[in-house]
Amino acid sequence: MTISLSNQLLTRTPLFFKNLEPTTNHKHPSSSIVKCKKHEFRNRNPTVNPQSIKASPEDTHTLMHLNDFIEPDLTRMSFDESLYVLECMVKMGYKPDVAVCTRLIKGFFTVKKAEKAVKVMELLEKFGEPNVVTYNAMITGFCKMNRVREANRVLNRMRIRGISPDVITYTIIIECLCGRGKLGLALKVLDQMKEERNCEPDVVTYTILMEATLRGGDIGGAMKLLDEMLSRGLEPNIYTYNTILKGLCRKGMMDHAYELIRSLPARGCRPDVISYNTLLRAWVNSGDGDGGEKLLKEMVARGVQPNIQTYNLVLIRLCGKGMLDQAYKFIRSFPARGCKPNVISYNILLGALLDRGNWDDREKLVKEMLSTGCEPTVVTYSILLISLCRDGELNEAMKLLQIMVEIGITPDTYVYTPLIRASCKEGRLDLAIDLLDEMVSNGCSPNTLNYNVILSAMCKDGHADLAVDTFEKLCETGCLQDVSAFNSMLSVLWNIGERTKALNMVLRMIDKGIDPNEFTYCTLVSCLCKGGMVDEAMVLLKDMESCSFPPNVYIYNIILLGYCKSQRLDEAIGVFEEMIAKGCQPNEKTYIILINGFGFQGWRDEAIELGTTLFQMNVISSKSLLGLKKTFLKHQPGVVGKRSINVIAREKYSG
To answer: Can you list the alpha helix ranges (DSSP code H) found in 128-272?
Structure first.
């Protein structure tokens, strides 16, 4: 049964409006009937005839709780309900409140309902007055969903309405571009910022740019940004310095990282536990002797208290080196160091045990974990499930999944992913699909990887058309919206010989407004070279550069391999020279590809001689040289065509 809400009731329930005052005369004890304290700022349009709204009793209850929405806790009214009430109030002629509408826009983007956010903005633009904060919320939402074209349209509409972008607007755009690997465009936005009045880039802006620059391995570029930042009177904060530390560690420049962290007090900034944890993490990956223990001592000496993350990093190192006895001793020393092991600590050790097949020690460790008050988490079970699936014990893994559910632990994506992958690997596609359905029914949203594994299995099982149709349906429902999903389908379809379908995937991606990323180009280059279409791959290489995606050594190696397999060594050497000229550092695989190219073209002795020369120059390892000698045992005369690469290598590595 529906009731007609009178104008009197609606005028007392002005959602999205300011200066509301609760009445003391209400009949329903759980309702907050509110009335307007002032009306003049609402600009109610006298020419608009309020409409009679048909609503159910539940809708009436929603309208009676309008004031709940403007409180920080939005749990009592859903975003969809709030949008409904906003539409009702606009029909009554009320002017929406910009602050509450902005919060609603953010809420819709949080739950991936961009179209609803657009609807709120349309109502606000038509009947209210959006401000720069509202537009920033829209731009942020679209950028996080990788819908950059829509973000640009919002930016243009913002300018048309006479609202100037502020530093936050530009920083949002810069962060989005950096996140998509388009640093060159982000730097152009920075230049535009500097030309704008009252829109100076701040510490956050520069830190984001430095982080992206360092992620690309350009230490010099990051230092230039730091110098520019200082010249503009901006003081770096600890987050800025930690970003630089991370970049130095990523490049293996540990000495420079140590020097920087020790110079921070003189720069007016004290290193924190994150600073030292960054160095420790690099030490874990580098294998540098007892550097971790030295760092721990230095931290304490400088008054920085190690935290549980610090000790867990050391534990990861010990387990990674197979030093399980020392790991046991170290975890038991935590209390003496002023820190209690947590479930993550035990999970690290449990994972190391199971990686080495120590299932018997598993029970001992779990008992010790429970005795310290640490309850197994979903991660603990995930570690066990991964080990079972890796060892081919899928049925046992399914039993463990059932136990998890029975004791009240909700499986997450990390639990289902190895199970789905193992099911597909064993050809049990029906089980994989059942697990996917179970994920959804348990409130666990499948990720792109889950879908990709099943779609790949469909393709390899001879059901490419079904996989493409399923993929399209998933895209329509919003389950697959990112570039990685398209990259995966592109690669799988090409590898099973469905080249036309693979290339159509790229067209579909562009049509949906999803821009290719670096991995898209890598996938296409790899596919083209595997298909003998090296010239087409070279055209794509040039296209990459024009789109601000400089080819890396991985892509160059793919093209070199394609040329060598086609016995086009002169062109391979030309590409080799080009990559060096463009500052792309060849790796050991680069040289092995070229040496193999000479050898398989008949110049076996020359290939071994070149390999020996490069080994003496510490360019390739002894293991690689031994592999070359085993490959090219037979002597066949040939033209000594290796000189150009030999000369280039000597010029590169002789200082």
So the answer is: 132-144, 148-160, 167-179, 183-195, 203-215, 219-231, 238-250, 254-263
Query: Residue 543's closest CA among 560, 569, 522?
Result: 522
Query: What is the domain count for the chain?
Result: 2
- Tokens representing 380 are 């603990």
Strand partners, 34: 22
Please state, in angstroms and rounded to a whole number, the distance separating the CA atoms of residues 565 and 80.
59
H-only helix segments in 2-78: 7-11, 57-64, 66-69
Give dist(CA 244, CA 353) in Å, integer.
35
- For residue 393, is it within any domain? no
Range of the domain at 39: 1-130
Task: Work out the burial of residue 648: count CB atoms within 10 Å of its CB; fewer than 13 is exposed, 13-18 middle, 19 or more buried.
Answer: middle
Helix (H, G, I), strand (E, B) or coil at 5: strand
Q: How far is CA 586 from CA 5, 9, 558, in A?
A: 74, 74, 12
Q: Final residue of a domain: which of 130, 150, 182? A: 130
Residue 382 forms part of a structural domain: no
pLDDT in tens, 619-634: 888 888 888 888 886 5
Model confidence pTM above 0.70: no
**Residue 568 corresponds to which tokens in the numbers above?**
């086009």
Which single residue is written with the structure tokens 């909700």? 410
641 in Cβ contact with 598 (< 8 Å): yes
In Å, the largest CA–CA distance within the chain is 105
- Domain presence at residue 29: yes
Q: What CATH number should be reported for the domain holding residue 631?
A: 1.25.40
Q: How many CA atoms lie within 13 A of 498 on its CB side?
A: 21
- For the chain, how far is it from start to end, CA to CA, in angstroms? 87
Cα–Cα distance measured from residue 261 to residue 146, given in angstroms and rounded to the nearest whole number = 35
Q: What are phi and psi of 331, to 5 degrees?
A: -65, -30
On whether residue 75 sits in a domain, the answer given is yes
Question: CA 560 to CA 574: how far, in whole Å?
Answer: 10
Q: What are the pLDDT digits (tens) for 511-560?
A: 878 888 888 888 888 888 888 889 988 988 888 877 777 888 888 999 99
Tell me the C-alpha distance between 211 and 556, whole Å. Answer: 25
Tokens of 209: 């740019």
H helix runs in 25-97, sequence order: 57-64, 66-69, 79-91
- CA–CA dist 284, 282 (Å, integer): 5
Output the six-digit token pair for 50: 């309020």
For 8-24, the pLDDT digits (tens) are: 322 333 333 333 333 33
How many CB atoms neighbour CB 80 within 10 A? Answer: 13
Amino acid at 44: R
Contact between residue 86 and residue 38 where contact means Cβ atoms under 8 Å apart? no
In this structure, the chain runs to a length of 655
19: left (phi over 0), alpha (psi -120 to 50) or beta: left
Q: 114, 130, 146 — which closes off a domain?
A: 130
Nearest to 629 by CA among 591, 595, 586, 594: 595
Q: Which residues contact 503 (CB under 8 A, 6 or more apart)?
A: none
Q: What is the amino acid identity at position 37?
A: K
- 454 bridge partner residues: none
Residue 64 has pLDDT above 50, yes or no: no
Q: Which residues of 579-589 are buried (b: 16+ CB within 10 A; e: fewer)?
A: bbeeebebeee
Contacts of 168 (CB under 8 A, 6+ apart): 132, 136
Q: Are 405 and 423 in contact (CB under 8 A)?
A: no
SS3 state at 61: helix
